[in-house]
Model the fold of this input.
Amino acid sequence: MVLRSYRFGRFRLDPATRELWNGGERVALAPKSFDCLSYLIEQRSRAVGRDELISAVWGRVDVSDALLGQTLARARRAIGDTGGEQSSIRTVPRFGYRWVAATEVAERDDASIDAVEADARAAQEPRAPARAEATPAPAPAGDAAPLGANAAPRAPRPRRRRRALVAALVLAAAAGCAALLVAARHEPARPRPVPPP
Done:
């Protein structure tokens, strides 16, 4: 498989690894901003309509203009562009956006990438002396595992789970409040005592 990367100015965007590089330094970029940037570069020969861009990045069309604007502002900021200059991403009034920066396309074979990545990983791994080969100690039981050279840091809980739990708790609380309000409104009327004749 042939993979492409794009060079513009001092930046390189690699869609396959989802990385944006500024010279030799990787640039942190929110996923949707990366997707917008990548889509605009891939469609650089033409202007991309607002709805097309939203559909390609979010997979739906009901995204607000404010969210799209914020996402593109982050992408512009990451590559040193501004809404005023528009040297890379140009706004096409009443239509959408267009990639206008001069861009070079580099193609490479998937097999060569694997070899390059393996060499890079091997170069980054520390080399132990040949005679002193240590075996990792077993991790202690329980939650408190020390972070040593051989222990991998524990992955944080995904935000989606926390958000789903919070949303479920909020909904349960709202349902409980609604039930109390309904019960209070529909409390049976107490009969009035009838005065003796």
Notes: The longest strand covers residues 2-8. Residues 159-185 form the longest helix (27 residues). The CA atoms of residues 111 and 159 lie 35 Å apart.
